């Protein structure tokens, strides 16, 4: 992270804020690449903007340059993250910046990718381009917290979602629905912003969950479904099984009948055999490493009692949302309470109430 003391004007701050908002709009939708925002100005007017393409390409700088209909010579570019400087699936953005004779480049934070990190400054400056960094560094570094975590630990950034009733129950077979319709919409927003969603087969079979994003216009951004199913007991008449294919569903299992394995594979479901810890629970950290190699960067966990408890106990959640309903639900013959989770939440020191103008449920974000 930069310790430079460059001076920035109020206009610089305004343009970088716009670049950050562009990056935020695509956050969670850019595949294995970070979401970047870019703003180009000339003669004190915005002449182009860009953001990372869906699934990660093209890069924000390329989009901003490509969408501009006038000469970029003498212009000024604001970028949330250090521009790439190496050949990958696309040429370096630094090459394009130099070619278009952009006069000045301001970017906020250095990339943590070793192929890129802290090299662009020297490359651009060697070509006579004015380069400054560190603008809005705290705010933008916080925005890239997920990306930095991905790169450092080679694992997805994990967000949990836990819903409890007013009387601290997280499940009762007399009443499956705990939260209100406004909390449901927030849940679908979380699904939209995460590329993968994990659930256990136990919860799936109990609720016949769809695990998709049902916000109008955003259905195509539904996350990949990740199912933990020890013995492949997922019901074949469930919505998930009926709609499963190799692109949208991965099932981690341990042991199952060969005929059942063949049946699932013919359906097109991606099956991955995974080890158990103490012959009872999946090795969650190992599964997360595997998901990272398969392209998962932001994982949402909508677990029941056992799965959420494991993520809390092992401190695997990077953050989780606690939805607290104002409704009491009755204890049935089968129920689960939240009380045994309360101590585990103490591992998450940062707590922030999410403001809502709708509904009566309270939503609190816990972070490590």
Give the low-pLDDT segments: none
Q: Can you summarize the main beta sheet?
A: 9 strands, mixed
What is the count of DSSP helices, taking H or I runs of 4+ residues? 12
β-strand percent reads 15-25%
Strand order of the largest sheet: 11-10-9-8-14-6-15-18-17
How many strand segments?
18
* Run of helices and strands: HEEHEHEHEHHEEHEHEHEHEEEHEHEEEE
Overall helicity = 25-40%
What is Rg? 23 Å
On the 0 to 100 scale, the average pLDDT is 92
Coarse shape: globular
SS-derived structural category: alpha/beta
Termini, distance in Å?
A: 21 Å
Structure explained in plain terms:
The protein has a 9-stranded mixed sheet with strand order 11-10-9-8-14-6-15-18-17, sandwiched between helices. A 5-stranded mixed sheet has the order 2-1-3-4-5, sandwiched between helices. It is built from 12 helices and 18 strands. The mean pLDDT is about 90. It is globular, with a radius of gyration of 23 Å. The chain has helices spanning about 10-25, 60-65, 95-100, 120-125, 135-145, 145-155, 180-195, 200-205, 240, 260-265, 285-295, 305-315; strands at about 35-40, 45-50, 75-80, 105-110, 130-135, 155-165, 170, 195-200, 225-230, 250-255, 270-275, 275, 280, 300, 320-325, 335, 350-355, 360-365. The protein has about 375 residues and is of the alpha/beta class.
What are the SSEs and their pairings?
Blueprint: H1 10-25, E1 37-42, E2 45-51, H2 60-66, E3 76-81, H3 93-99, E4 104-109, H4 120-126, E5 130-133, H5 137-143, H6 145-153, E6 157-164, E7 169-172, H7 181-193, E8 196-200, H8 201-207, E9 224-228, H9 239-242, E10 249-253, H10 258-267, E11 270-273, E12 276-277, E13 281-282, H11 284-293, E14 298-301, H12 305-313, E15 319-324, E16 335-337, E17 350-354, E18 362-367
């Amino acid at each position: 992270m930069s310790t430079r003391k460059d001076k920035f004007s109020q206009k610089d701050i305004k343009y970088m804020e716009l670049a950050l908002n562009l990056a935020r709009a695509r956050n969670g939708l850019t595949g294995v690449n970070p979401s970047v925002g870019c703003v180009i100005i000339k003669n004190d007017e915005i002449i182009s903007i860009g953001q990372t393409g869906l699934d990660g390409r093209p890069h924000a700088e390329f989009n901003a340059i490509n969408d501009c209909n006038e000469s970029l010579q003498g212009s000024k570019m604001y970028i949330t993250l250090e521009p790439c400087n190496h050949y990958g699936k696309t040429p370096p953005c630094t090459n394009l910046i130099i070619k278009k004779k952009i006069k000045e480049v301001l970017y906020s934070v250095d990339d943590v990718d070793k192929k890129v990190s802290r090299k662009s400054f020297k490359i651009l400056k060697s070509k006579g381009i004015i380069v400054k960094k560190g603008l809005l560094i705290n705010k933008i570094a916080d925005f890239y917290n997920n990306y930095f975590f991905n790169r450092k630990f080679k694992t997805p950034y994990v967000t949990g979602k836990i819903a409890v009733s007013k009387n601290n129950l997280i499940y009762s077979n007399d009443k499956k629905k705990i939260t209100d319709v406004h909390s449901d919409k927030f849940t679908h927003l979380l699904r939209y912003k995460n590329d993968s969603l994990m659930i256990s087969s136990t919860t799936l079979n109990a609720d016949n969950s769809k695990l998709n994003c049902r916000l109008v216009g955003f259905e195509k951004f539904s996350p990949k479904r990740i199912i933990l199913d020890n013995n492949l007991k997922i019901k074949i008449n469930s919505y998930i099984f009926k709609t499963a294919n190799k692109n949208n569903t991965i099932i981690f299992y341990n042991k199952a009948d060969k005929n059942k394995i063949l049946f699932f594979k013919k359906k097109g479901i991606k099956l991955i055999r995974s080890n158990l810890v103490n012959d009872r629970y999946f090795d969650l950290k190992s599964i997360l490493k595997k998901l990272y190699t398969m392209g998962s960067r932001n994982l949402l966990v909508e677990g029941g009692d056992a799965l959420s408890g494991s993520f809390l106990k092992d401190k695997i959640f990077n953050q989780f949302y606690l939805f607290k309903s104002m409704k009491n639900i009755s204890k049935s013959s089968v129920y689960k309470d939240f009380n045994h989770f309360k101590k585990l939440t103490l591992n998450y020191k940062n707590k922030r109430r999410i403001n809502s103008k709708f509904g009566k449920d309270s939503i609190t974000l816990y972070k490590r």
